């Protein structure tokens, strides 16, 4: 009887979803088959007031990066330990109840087009499946995305558990209903793992990506936007505190374009690579850095840095002598790129790495900067309005004190995903089995 009721509810979910318009602006549809085992939550831009005051006042890209997409919130705390035999669950509140619910829901998902091959076998003993160095977690959420959209599943960012990272996965329109299964890769340094609260992020992105390289002298309007932002007044104001210049700039809206080509405008050596479905920011030289609790120190090979600076100035020379010769260009705008690394103020465990490339997207587009993460440091997530502001620095956050950390030459630092802001802000619709069951019963009694 229980199985029949749940089956009817799932059928109702499929029937309801099939009528949703998949045109531009249609929501991402989520069916919850495990009754809230994992919830979808809009994150606070300030992380509930925990970000530094200076960042909250001035760093709009960080705030937008905090709030983008939806966080996957685990309702029950799961504690695991690592031993010679692999991973073992030490404590899992409500494990028996969620295991029974999982066993009831999984057999009906496949016939209704809501499962994948092997899902029922993998999670026959509950929504957590353990491997030697990873955890497979069935969230109980089944997603379907509209045409033209793909849903990126990845680690949460800017505040996250450090004992694991979430393997990147995508759900696209062709997948139909797709269970959201997280693959949690355990860090080698972690001896115990706690799954609790925020465990992953889902972010909607366009399913199509077009980009091309341009040299700086071919894009004088992009060069002009950069030097006009980083003028003398900007640097003088920054010495006194936050300028809020970026925040004022991005309030000037342009008519949005749905499609278009992203341009990687090279203002020096190539350090941003156009990959199949993204841009990849790579380290232009090896980095060695350390936070002592008060100051960040970054060691760079000075000969390599000098070579990069020369190449940057050579790239700018024909622009400064040509289209920008009448502009009052402050040299700090070039130094912003040529320094390559800029530490944050004393006491903050952060520093910027600035590739000599400017990203120009169509009007109404932003670029999601998805930093690569590690056990001891992360590159932060941010959203940059690259239709009006074109620099895309990688912001390092150091998680340890007193340890010398290193980045290899050419190592990936961040992935860049250009997207219309309308796509990044696409709504989610969540349907729970309980709610759908009440609707079904109400229809029966009408």
Largest beta sheet, briefly?
6 strands, mixed
Going by CATH, what is the homologous superfamily of the largest domain? Deoxyuridine triphosphatase (dUTPase)
Which spans have pLDDT < 50 for at least 5 consecutive residues? Answer: 1-24
Structural class category:
alpha+beta
Q: Predict the CATH topology of the largest domain.
A: Deoxyuridine 5'-Triphosphate Nucleotidohydrolase, Chain A
CATH class membership of the largest domain: Mainly Beta
Secondary structure tally: strands: 27
CATH architectural designation of the largest domain: Distorted Sandwich
Q: Which geometry do the CA atoms define?
A: globular
| Tally of individual domains | 2
Provide the helix percentage: 25-40%
Distance between the termini: 22 Å
Number of helices: 12
Strand content: 25-35%
Verbal overview:
- The protein is of the alpha+beta class.
- It has two domains: 2-207 and 427-445, Deoxyuridine 5'-Triphosphate Nucleotidohydrolase, Chain A, CATH 2.70.40; 211-421, Deoxyuridine triphosphatase (dUTPase) (Deoxyuridine 5'-Triphosphate Nucleotidohydrolase, Chain A, Distorted Sandwich).
- Helices cover 26% and strands 34% of the residues.
- The chain contains twelve helices and 27 strands.
- It has helices at residues 2-18, 53-58, 60-67, 95-109, 119-122, 220-229, 232-238, 245-249, 302-320, 332-338, 421-424, 433-445, and strands at residues 28-32, 38-41, 70-83, 86-92, 128-130, 134-144, 149-154, 164-166, 169-172, 178-186, 192-206, 211-215, 262-266, 272-274, 279-282, 287-291, 296-299, 341-343, 350-353, 357-360, 365-371, 377-379, 382-384, 394-398, 405-407, 412-420, 428-432.
- The strands form six sheets. Strands 1, 5, 6, 8, 10 and 27 form a six-stranded mixed sheet that branches.
- The two termini are 22 Å apart.
- 38% of the residues are buried.
